[in-house]
Design brief:
This protein is an all-alpha fold. The protein contains 4 helices and no strands. It has helices at 2-13, 17-37, 42-80, 87-94. Helix 1 runs antiparallel to helix 2 (17-37). It starts with a helix and ends with a helix. The model has no long low-confidence stretch (mean pLDDT 85).
């Protein structure tokens, strides 16, 4: 399971979210088997909780970065248009 955990972290860090999703599904299947059989240990459950929290933080950071890049692209598009708004107006609007 630690190999899957490392693979999930690697995929998330590279923003390969589809790959991370597939790995998470496999990880969840293994955990479900362990829980059903009664062999799941507290350390495993703690690892899952930590991995989920780490992935959540990475996803939120990635989303924030994407939103910032989108905002930059929108401002750049405004400047490219003939008769676009003036720079001070764009700056005021974003504050």
């Amino acid at each position: 399971m630690s190999d899957l955990s490392a693979a999930i972290r690697h995929a998330m860090a590279r923003e390969e979210f589809e790959k991370a999703k597939l790995l998470w599904n496999e990880y969840a299947r293994h955990m479900a088997e362990d829980v059903r059989s009664g062999s799941a240990k507290q350390t495993q459950l703690a690892e899952v909780r930590q991995l989920m929290e780490w992935c959540r933080r990475v996803a939120l950071a990635s989303r924030a970065q994407a939103a910032a890049r989108l905002k930059i692209l929108r401002v750049a598009e405004t400047y490219r248009r003939p008769g676009g708004v003036s720079a001070p107006a764009v700056i005021r609007a974003s504050l």
